[in-house]
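Problem: given the chain below (235 residues), write out its structure.
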Amino acid sequence: MRLLLVVLLLAGSFLPVYAQESTMNKSERYDSVQVPYSAFNVYTKNATVFKLDHEHVTNWEIEMQNKLQYADKEGNAVVRLYENLNTPKFIEIGMGGPPDYRFWVAVNTPEDGYFMIHDEKKIGWTPDKLITATHSSSGGLTVSVGSKEAVSNLDVAGFTMREFTVSGMNSASDSPPVNAGALTFSIISGDPSQNLIFYMPFMVLAVTLVLIVALLKTKKRTSEETKKISENKPS
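Solution.
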């Protein structure tokens, strides 16, 4: 049993060291965009387009920090996530200005058109809270404001992030919704199974089980040999 404890201690100390020295998961992609307030002062049909440097396939996480200064309480900041601007499929995240701080999430698909998933008209978000949107092959789409989930595990039939747009005016006659600040848009994606660290717990478990079996067999054999010696010992 002492040998087993030594192995477990060594494995436990090896994991964090390996994690620190391991190179970045080769499948990971990261993009970050600082969106100026002026990009939102456009009509929806003339939305400002941002094409990402990387293609983020299926498993991704977006973080948005909204530090825009709204010109009036009717102002909105709308972010639409796209696979392809030439197709009608997109995910929309909207953030209204103070004092209401309306927050909504909508999805548009070729089959069903535009439909609202979540619409919180009062204090749906605040500038001090990080807005996150995650998508995975098994969990679908989840959108959160701080630690509070607004949308959970919504099936959007897969989604590869390639570009996004921002806008804030519903018509060309609207006044500019924001007059200062910026929105930080960051996205990271990757397949965790391509990182060796992903498999380390399973490897440690397998080694531990093998050692337990070996120790039990050794203990049993030792007991049998001791018993034979006792039986053969002259009385």
